């Protein structure tokens, strides 16, 4: 319940910005949701099927909320990983869920792939610059988990050179990397002191920006997340960028500019209906 209330408060904070007290409500309810979620996870092996469904529902609500928080990038990654781990636990113990239709990556692809373009990304100039920039980060990587994250991002960029379908499939592999890490390795990946990981997350934001118009097209209608998502992504990108030393900032400036450009074009995008 606290997760739902937190998500609702975040929604009102975004849509009715003059009512700033909704942000405080969102933070309060999110804290309580995380507290009770932590208690439930501590005894996860004895949870019933219904309880595990409730835990997964809580994680999903917190994922959606984090995506619309101006400082929610790390929370988003943590909760996406949480959803994946809980889903795996449910499938292992109960072979499925009574609340959710749990689908593997191939089933998701079969559902969404027909709606995605078989053409390469229309903006190959941006794609090529992103590939150039991420490859310049490779010499700074000195651990296996960060390398796996790097490779999944690079593969997604390379897939944009073939088709949007291929890129969507590779984007799913980014989340698989988060899921497959040992907990300590994942915590090291998201720590604020991991400079190269922070730079790689900027590439994740750039990929999200490149992919968003095509995923919105799959929905078949205009959606406010076009504007809200672009605004939040710019806030995430700025926060990550300004925490980097100057020599690394120079290597990811194009990606930050790419995210900022989408946000600057929101009025034009909405007016054109594209």
From the structure above, extract its key features:
274 residues; mainly alpha; 13 helices; 76% helix; globular; disordered C terminus; Fun_TF; DNA-binding transcription factor activity, RNA polymerase II-specific
User: Which class best fits the helix and strand makeup?
Assistant: mainly alpha
Total domains, how many? 2
Gross morphology: globular
Order of helices and strands: HHHHHHHHHHHHH
SS elements, strand count: 0
Q: Mean pLDDT, nearest integer?
A: 88
Gyration radius (Cα, Å) is 19 Å
Main β-sheet description: none
What proportion of the residues is helical, as a percent range?
over 70%
Unreliable spans are 268-274
Report the sheet-strand fraction.
under 5%
Describe this structure in words.
The protein is mainly alpha-helical and 274 residues long. Helix content is 76%, strand content 0%. It folds into 2 domains: 2-94, no CATH class; 111-272, no CATH class. The protein is built from 13 helices and no strands. It is globular.
Summarize this, please?
This protein is mostly helical. The chain has helices at residues 2-15, 21-42, 49-67, 73-94, 105-112, 124-137, 144-160, 164-180, 183-190, 195-219, 225-241, 246-264, 266-272.
């Amino acid at each position: 319940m606290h997760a739902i209330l937190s998500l609702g408060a975040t929604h009102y904070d975004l849509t009715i910005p003059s009512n700033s007290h909704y942000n405080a409500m969102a933070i309060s309810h999110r804290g309580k949701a995380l507290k009770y979620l932590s208690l439930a996870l501590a005894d996860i092996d004895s949870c019933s099927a219904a309880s595990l469904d409730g835990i997964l529902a809580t994680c999903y609500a917190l994922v959606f909320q984090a995506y619309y928080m101006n400082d929610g990038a790390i929370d988003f990654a943590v909760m996406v990983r949480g959803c994946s781990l809980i889903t795996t636990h449910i499938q292992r113990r109960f072979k499925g869920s009574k609340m959710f239709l749990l689908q593997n990556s191939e089933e998701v692809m079969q559902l969404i792939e027909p709606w995605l373009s078989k053409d390469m990304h229309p903006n190959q100039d941006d794609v090529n610059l992103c590939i150039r920039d991420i490859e310049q980060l490779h010499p700074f990587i000195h651990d296996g988990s960060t390398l796996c994250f790097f490779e999944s991002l690079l593969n997604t960029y390379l897939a944009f050179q073939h088709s949007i379908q291929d890129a969507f499939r590779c984007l799913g592999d980014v989340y698989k990397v988060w899921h497959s890490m040992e907990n300590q390795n994942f915590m090291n990946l998201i720590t604020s002191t991991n400079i190269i990981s922070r730079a790689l997350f900027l590439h994740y934001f750039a990929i999200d920006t490149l992919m968003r118009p095509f995923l919105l097209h799959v929905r078949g209608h205009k959606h406010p997340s076009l504007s809200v998502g672009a605004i939040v992504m710019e806030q995430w990108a700025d926060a990550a960028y300004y925490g980097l030393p100057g020599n690394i900032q120079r290597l990811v400036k194009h990606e930050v500019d790419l995210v900022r450009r989408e946000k600057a074009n929101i009025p034009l995008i909405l007016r054109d209906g594209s």
